[in-house]
Design a protein that fits this description.
Elements: H1 16-28, E1 34-38, H2 46-63, E2 66-70, H3 74-80, E3 84-88, E4 91-96, H4 98-103, H5 108-113, E5 118-125, E6 131-134, E7 137-140, E8 153-158, E9 163-166, E10 176-186, E11 190-197, E12 200-207, E13 217-222, E14 228-231
Parallel strand pairs: 1-2
Antiparallel strand pairs: 3-4, 5-6, 5-8, 6-7, 8-14, 9-13, 10-11, 10-13, 11-12
Length: 234
């Protein structure tokens, strides 16, 4: 528990992270078959939460105890858990490993719940290959789409990391679009951009090494396989 030398301290004399380790040790000492952790990191500051994620996962893996971890923090769930069950209104709607839920969500709720997303409205065009038509924009799709969605309004979900900056003059690649940076936020390891493309605004990430400013004209590419489509009433 990394608490050597603190044996004589009262709980109020321990830091938040140390108190969490004591609580976890108390739960583990009885060797339970299943350990329930109900938002155990909710009262910690952001930096300590990140540190404790790794410690919790290592302790659970080392002891070999099955743990049920309850949290509203999607990033926390993905970093700690082997399998995740997503619930909505008291009902489990999808179960899978973190990558499966993030990259292959089965519903609009799961797609927008797991991570940050751009959500747009569009309509599937009946062509081969298949395209989705947005307001003044058309994007090619590379995922299998149910034929019943052709010609119907749909939700289009695109994650910010799926929108890549294009620096070279590439004419042959699909889904290259031009826009203007309307806002830019520096987040340390990367930028968060808002890119105005006609009447559509997309949020995208860019590397911190990029030299970007508000008002810059940029080209971006959206990989066809990264575009998620869901029924509008889903």
């Amino acid at each position: 528990t990394k608490l050597k030398g603190l044996e004589n301290r009262y709980p109020t004399q321990l830091s938040g992270g140390q108190q969490q380790r004591v609580a976890l040790a108390r739960a583990l000492v009885v060797e339970p078959e299943v350990l329930l952790l109900d938002e155990p990191l909710s009262n910690l500051d952001a930096k300590l939460r990140v540190e404790m994620r790794g410690e919790l996962r290592n302790i659970i893996k080392t002891t070999g105890i099955t743990a049920i971890y309850v949290t509203h923090d999607q990033e926390e769930a993905m970093s700690i858990c082997d399998r995740i069950a997503i619930m909505n209104k008291g009902r489990v709607i999808q179960v899978g490993d973190p990558k499966e839920l993030y990259f292959n969500p089965k519903s609009f709720f799961v797609a927008t719940f797991m991570g940050k997303s751009n959500v747009l409205k569009g309509m599937i065009k009946e062509t081969d290959p298949m395209f989705v038509k947005l307001d003044g924009l058309q994007l090619r799709l590379d995922r299998k789409i149910d034929d019943k969605l052709v010609g119907k309004p749909v939700y289009v979900v695109i994650r910010p990391e799926s929108i890549k900056m294009v620096r070279e003059n590439i004419d042959y690649a699909e889904n290259i679009i031009e826009g203007e940076i309307t806002s830019i936020s520096f987040l340390g390891s990367h930028y968060l951009l808002s890119i105005n493309i006609g009447s559509i605004v997309l949020q995208a990430y860019a590397e911190a090494s990029e030299r970007l400013s508000q008002g810059d004209k940029v080209k971006v590419r959206i990989d066809p396989k990264d575009i998620l489509i869901f029924e509008e009433q889903d």
